[in-house]
Amino acid sequence: MELQIVRIFAFLLTMALMSAVRADDISAAIDVLRAVRPGAADSAAARNAVQEVTTGGSQALLPLLHGFRDATPLSVNWLRNAFEQMADAETKAGRQLPQSELEAFVADQSQSPFARRLVYETLKRTDPGIENRLIPDMLLDASPEFRRDAVALLMTEASHLQDAAIATPLYRKAFSGAVHEDQVKTIAEALRKHNEEVDIQKHFGFLSQWSIVGPFDNKEEKGFAMAYGPELEVNASLDLNLQAEYDGQSAKVRWQSISTTDDYGVVDIAKQIENYKGSLMYATTTWTSNKEQQVEIRLGTPNSWKLWVNGQLVFEREEYHRSSQLDQYRVPVNLRAGSNTLLLKICQNSQTQDWAQRYQYQIRICNSTGSALLPSSSTARSEIGSGVRQ
């Protein structure tokens, strides 16, 4: 009897040791996939790592999925390949994927949005009911794609209701999670038909109040690289002086206030001031943050531009008259607690074609999902005429 117990214990110990070694091998293979770089040598190592992981069966699925977090795009492709091979192998062998564990992974907002979506679509192929189990709770999800699904469910439900008193709260709920322009437009139209007020500008976090100065010379497109008064102040690490007067394109120029009531925050220089051809303007505003935080500044414009935040150049694009759209450019920046100063340089060239007449921009501040971040004060503000240096 004692000998039998010893043999059983030895067997279990051996299996445990083999399992531990196997887990180490799988972990090492995942590390190889996460570290892969362009090149034939890394590709060969990655192929071997995929084979190693895929032989691990369902127990390797979650470690592999955790490996997606913060992986490079190239690594994500290899990790996805491994996951798809593993999932297909389990299905062909007639084995069930670990449903509850994978659903918990999909619901975990700290994981890679790409990996979460990959798992969701994989499970949905054999379990369509997963949509109604998971998606309704994703209205404010960290993944814009899942948010879109949750918003779509509410929009569909509301659109089938004839009673505005019942439909309106559903549209309002959908609006609270919407981060895509097409959904926001559709919901806003529905709410306004029900005589509801909708503030699209605030919903997206557009900056609507600015101080602007110009025009400065940009003939032959030379002004993009040339620093004029406001830019010289920033380059010298000085605060912008909104009481200053500068030598402009043809006369002295001073800061003036400009604001927009456009739903999508468009400041239209050509229509609100003048379409100065071969010119550039500087625009500034402040945004007050209640803490130090990383945000995205999202900008749309058909013009060439540079953007400074708190005196640091964060992005520039010298291209004229390309198409303009919401969130055309996404610039991640760190804001400090308190007042943050944005300075935009926006350039118009001398082309006279009808399609080359737009002179405008729109800027908003949001998080990585596209949800608006609002300043801790009531509004972002320009302080022209206050006698206060920013």
Count of structural domains: 3
Structural class: alpha+beta
Output the strand order for the largest sheet. Answer: 4-1-6-11-8-9
How many distinct beta strands?
Answer: 12
Low-confidence stretches: 5-22, 378-390
Q: Terminal Cα separation, in Å? A: 86 Å
Shape: globular
Main sheet, how many strands, which sense, barrel? Answer: 6 strands, antiparallel
Average pLDDT rating: 90
Describe the model.
The chain has 390 residues and is α+β, with helices and mostly antiparallel strands. The chain folds into three domains: 2-127, no CATH class; 144-198; 204-366, Jelly Rolls (Sandwich). Helix content is 42%, strand content 20%. The chain contains 13 helices and twelve strands. The strands form three sheets. It has a six-stranded antiparallel sheet, with helices on one face. Strands 5-12-7-10 form a four-stranded antiparallel sheet. Strand 8 (304-309) and strand 9 (312-317) form a beta hairpin. Helix 2 (40-54) runs parallel beside helix 4, helix 8 (144-159) runs antiparallel to helix 9 (164-177) and helix 9 runs antiparallel to helix 10. It is globular, with a radius of gyration of 28 Å. The relative contact order is 0.09. Residues 5-22 and 378-390 have low confidence and may be disordered.
Give the topology, please.
Blueprint: H1 2-35, H2 40-54, H3 61-66, H4 73-92, H5 99-107, H6 113-126, H7 130-134, H8 144-159, H9 164-177, H10 181-193, H11 200-204, E1 209-217, H12 229-235, E2 245-247, E3 252-254, E4 256-259, E5 267-268, H13 269-274, E6 279-289, E7 293-300, E8 304-309, E9 312-317, E10 329-335, E11 338-348, E12 360-366
Antiparallel strand pairs: 1-4, 1-6, 2-3, 5-12, 6-11, 7-10, 7-12, 8-9, 8-11
Helix pairs in contact: 1-2, 1-4, 2-4, 5-6, 8-9, 9-10
